[in-house]
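Notes to self, Uncaracterized surface protein containing fasciclin (FAS1) repeats:
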Amino acid sequence: MNRLLPRRTAAGAAAVVMCFGLAACSSSGDDSSSSESTTPSASESMSEDMATGPFGAGCAGVPTEGEGSVEGMADDPVATAASNNPLLTTLVKAVTAADLVDTLNSAEALTVFAPTDDAFAKIPAADLDALLADKDALTKVLTHHVVEGQLAPDEVAGEHETLAGDTITVEGSGEEFTIGEAAVVCGNVDTANAKVYVVDSVLMP
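result:
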């Protein structure tokens, strides 16, 4: 089950307004041209609703500089990037216990729904210890948090097959997303090979 995170890349794109039809752009002088250029198109309005960087209240817990910062994480493959993020220490411990670090770091393109330390703390301590000691069960839980491809905010909503072989359904839009009872608290975080959405609850298969 060493396939925590392989997959294809899918990135978001910004819409750009262009003026087609020189007659319409120039027929009535400067006033007409100025009026046309300041009117937003439907595609511009849509692009304003799409997050272009990390979003969410939980991002305040990410360091502002160093390897654990947003900029620092973008330079490293996802397991290494997570190990530098103070919000994800239990997740890193779990990934290590499942022997999935190398698989994660060598994957081509993934989207990871990464539970925070507080998310793992919602699980009773005895149950969490038992999970961490059961490699097969732990691998199934961890791969349930991973899908193929790097899903941008305008692509992440919907039903996705996980690496555990089941599906998760992401609901929402803009900067508000949920997966069941879990909410994205810091989304659209880039690493060298993955898109990360930090969530406030562990997703159980």
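- The beta strands are 110-115, 146-148, 158-161, 167-173, 176-179, 182-190, 194-199.
- The chain has ten helices and seven strands.
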